[in-house]
Every structure is written in C-alpha cells, then in structure tokens.
TrEMBL record:
One of its GO terms (biological process) is bacterial-type flagellum-dependent cell motility. Residues 32-152 form the Flagellar hook-associated protein 2 C-terminal domain. This is Flagellar hook associated protein 2. InterPro entries: FliD, FliD_C.
C-alpha cells in the first residue's frame, strides 16, 4: 500500500507511506490478510470479513481471530406458523362470507320466501367458486412434502389437524 498527497508538501510529509519500503510517517500495525476459516472440514479464504456463501444461506461476520468457534443454526417455525395461521383465518373468513351470502332460512308451506335468506342464495357462481377453491385443497403437489393443503395444518405447526 502506498499513500501520497500531491499539491500539499506538508500534508504529504505527514501522511505519506509506502508499505513496500516501510517508509513514511505512518506505521503498519496489522498487516491486511484475507479471512481464513474452516467450515465442516473445508478451508475457506475470503478477501472480506463478511462471508456470505459458507455455509450457503448463512452470513458470517468475522470480528476477531479465534482458534475455535461453534456456530449453531436452528430452525424458527414462528414466521411460517404465523403465515399459515393468517392464511387459515382468511380462508375461514371467506367461508363465513359465502355462508352468509348463501344462507337459507326455511319457511312454512304457503309463506313467502324469508327476507333472512342470503343475497346470493341459489347463485351457481358462488357454488362454482367454492368448488374450485375446495378442489385446490384436494390436489396434491407432485414435488411437495405436503400432498394436500390440508396437511399443512398439523399439530406440529400448532394448528388443528384436518
């Protein structure tokens, strides 16, 4: 590394430095080196102290030299659980809306239809939408660990099993 200041002799005298000849007013206290680490028996060397690819999906920020360090990575299901629960709640709300819109209230023979019936009672479009949505739960994903959407709601995720 070489540092020079042009156009200002006094500043150059103060800051000039050449690491190859070790001359100038500054002194190199710690020689720059690449970060070296071993992950699962594999030696790795990087020009930065931030390692983003070893192991994949993990970012390591190296702050000091140590002879031995253990990194423990754990799985956190919290966000997945919250997202699934939110989705289930939204689906249940949709089912409630369909039920309200297609509600049937029985009447005695000879009476007129109840005004308590849902606005879309008997509407085939609503039934078609309901059938299409339900079919998505029954369809299996070919490459998925979960063969149906219903399998996502499991006691392991803190949701009731279907």
């Amino acid at each position: 590394m070489k540092i020079t200041v042009e156009g200002d002799t006094k500043l150059n005298d103060l800051l000039a430095y050449d690491s190859t000849t070790n001359t100038g007013n500054m002194q190199e206290l710690v020689k720059a080196e690449n970060a070296k680490l071993n992950v699962n028996g594999i030696d790795i060397e990087r020009q930065s102290n931030t390692v983003t690819d070893a192991p994949q999906g993990i970012t390591l920020t190296l702050t000091k030299k140590v002879t031995d360090a253990t990194v423990t990575v754990t799985k956190d299901d919290t966000k997945a659980k919250e997202a699934i629960k939110s989705w289930v709640d939204a689906y249940n709300s949709l089912v409630d809306t369909f039920s309200s819109l297609t509600k049937y209230t029985a009447v005695e023979p000879g009476e007129e239809a109840s005004d308590k019936n849902g606005a879309l009672l008997g509407d085939s479009v609503v039934r078609t939408i309901q059938t299409g949505i339900r079919a998505q739960f029954a369809n299996s994903g070919s490459n998925s660990a979960f063969k149906t959407m219903a399998k996502l709601a499991s006691p392991r995720m803190g949701l009731p099993a279907n």
